[in-house]
Amino acid sequence: MIDRGYRRAFGIAGLTSQEFQAVDSRGYWLEALALGKLLPETEAQANFVEVCKRRREPESVYENAWIKYSLVNLAKVISKKISECGASVPNVVTQELPDLFFDTLVKNLHEMEKECPNTNIQKAIITIRARQNKGKNQNRFRITNYGGYRIN
Questions:
Q1: What is the pLDDT of residues 110-150, one digit of tens each?
Q2: Which of 1, 44, 86, 97 is the most buried (most CB within 10 A)?
Q3: What is the per-residue pLDDT across 67-111, written as a single tens digit (0 to 9) for each?
Q4: Element (H, E) at 141
Q5: Residue 16, SS3?
Q6: Alpha-carbon span 111 to 30, nearest angstrom
Q7: What SS3 state is found at 149?
Q8: What family, per the record (predicted)?
Q9: Are 125 and 78 in contact (CB under 8 A)?
Q10: How many other C-beta atoms lie within 10 A of the C-beta of residue 17?
């Protein structure tokens, strides 16, 4: 399988240049492995598949790149559904997801809100941030009533 640039990787914030290169050069191949269209032939490929199934933590550049890329794309899909369909925030959006996912999701929603102001989007952003911070220590920040914050 020859890759000619996994074009969907362009413009993805959060990827280092090395991770971007990994997705751009081997994206179709990584996708096929992740989806089970290709069977792993090496230990590294088997490890990659295990990472995609969330059975182990990513270690290699390819594993980290694919996980980040997948999270960013998931955030884009969810933000589009919230913006266009007025959908509520799906239950898959939980605090276990990394901050990269939440930040990308909120950034996309803010951009969509500029194009079409929608109070549902603001409600979704509040829900998303609440889920992101659920159970986390909030003592470091003291939120003020005007939306700013002071560090203790």
A1: 888 787 776 678 888 888 888 888 766 544 444 444 444 44
A2: 97
A3: 888 888 888 888 887 777 666 788 777 777 788 788 888 888 888
A4: strand 141-143
A5: coil
A6: 29
A7: strand
A8: Belongs to the MaoP family.
A9: no
A10: 7
